[in-house]
Amino acid sequence: MRMQEQEQEQEDNFDTFPCDSFLEESIIDYDDEDYEESDSEIVAEMAEIQITETETETSNTSSKELRRARVWKHFEKQTIEEENETTETFILCKICEGHFSAKNSTTTLERHLKSKHPNVYNNLEQEETRTIPWTAETHKEKHKLFVNWIITDQQPFTIVENQSFKKFIASIQPKYKIPSRHTIKDMIMK
Q1: For residues 103 and 89, what is the distance between their CA atoms, to the nearest angstrom?
Q2: Major place of localization (predicted)?
C-alpha cells in the first residue's frame, strides 16, 4: 500500500512540471499500465546505473567477481593424494609458494598479497580503479538522470551549489561535473 501511495505522490509531482520535451526522453512513464516496479527492481536498476558509471574493462562482470578473479591469478588450488588414499587440498601462492587451507576466503588471500607482496597488491588495486573515459554522450545521459531526480523529488535548483552535496557527488563519481543551476533550468525549459 505504501508503495502505491509513493507512486501516486510521484505521479502528482510529475504532472506539475512544464517540461514535456525533456521528460519524453528521460523519465519513466508512471501513467503506463504496465509500470509496476518492486523495490528490488529499483535497486537492480540503480545497480545497472552504477555499473555504467564505472565501466570497467569487463563491464558484464560484477566488481566482486573481478576482485576474486584478480586475486586468484596469483593462487592455485592443489590436491595431493597420499598413499593411504586420503587427499589433501590446499591453496598455493604462485609467487612465494606459501600454502593456505583450501577453506580460506578470497579476503585471506588478498591479505596475504597485501602483506607479503605489496607491489603485486598495489597493481591489483590499480587494475580495479582503471576505468574507460567518459564520452560527451555519457555525460549528457548523467545530466538527464540528475535533472530527472531534481524534478521528481522537487529539489531546488540551488542544490547544485551546496558544498556538502558537491562533496557527496564527487565521492560517488569524481568524473561527473555537476551542471550549474542555470544549465538545469535551461535543460528543463527546452
Answers
A1: 9
A2: nucleus
Strands 75-81, 87-93: pairing is antiparallel
Q: What is the pTM of this model?
A: 0.37
What is the residue whose three cell numbers read 546505473? Answer: 49
Q: Is residue 184 pLDDT above 60, yes or no?
A: yes
Residue 125 has pLDDT above 60, yes or no: yes
DSSP of 15-45, one letter per residue? Answer: HT---HHHHHHHS--TT-TT----HHHHHHH
Of the residues 129, 158, 173, the one at which a domain ends: 129
Domains: count for the chain: 2
> Which pLDDT score is estimated for 24?
44
Please give the grid coordinates belonging to residue 83.
598413499
In angstroms, the CA 85 to CA 129 distance is: 46
Domain housing 93:
64-129
